[in-house]
């Protein structure tokens, strides 16, 4: 299933969710909540790349090539739960980080009639995930495994975000801390969770461990790209104004910078004086110091080496049917600009 066909199922999913969440309300209140849901979905879910959902659907199709239309629609609905989870986390993340733009649009919480009501909207999306899974799978033998997988995904992501928010200065920007953040905040819900859900749906629980290992490395590659683009990408292309330097985040770019400055106290002190400060001039100075340390060149070398490593891992992956799925995923990431 391609992106266009997946997007065509959006209206059906939105109506299903509205019915699930408002069925016991009076007509006036149900209409208000349905309108809110429609606006929320249109702004925070529509227009995305939907890569997580398409990974889930692609993995399921590869594992079950003879699946019926009805079986594929179950995978599609699970795919939408991953997209809802993505929007749920992005809304919360943008509030915490004070984000202004997302996907080339104003962040949801910045809209004049939304504000901190966005917190409740993020919770609404979380409730929607549970409602869709219950509606589709409540009597299915996979219900428990699917519910547990989604719960673990939320838990891992929240703990990764907790570590991300705990970064306080350059001393916290280490390879170890970064690996912990990425494995939880990015790798699990961006790569492992979609494939895990497909494996559960296809009754292939035996493949969890090798999938987790490969997805962890895919997530590291993906997050390092995001980190680099936050610092050095073109906002007109990425659709987002990067703020990692101003926020003092532990990223691939900043932990690499910290390591390079470990033996130069003067330059390290200068970088620290411009890091984690909401000041455009300070951020530009920090980025120039990173350029002087050849961070862009180091990133290009890292990206090339990581791509080769991932291709080798995919060629040796034990579930043959999933090799093309993972290869498509890594190829779509290689040299990306947004």
From TrEMBL:
Pathway: Pheromone biosynthesis. PROSITE patterns: POLYPRENYL_SYNTHASE_1. The keyword Protein biosynthesis does not apply. Keywords: Magnesium, Metal-binding, Transferase. One of its GO terms (biological process) is farnesyl diphosphate biosynthetic process. Pfam families: polyprenyl_synt. Its cofactor is Mg(2+). Belongs to the FPP/GGPP synthase family. This is Farnesyl pyrophosphate synthase. It comes from Plectus sambesii. The lineage of its organism: Eukaryota, Metazoa, Ecdysozoa, Nematoda, Chromadorea.
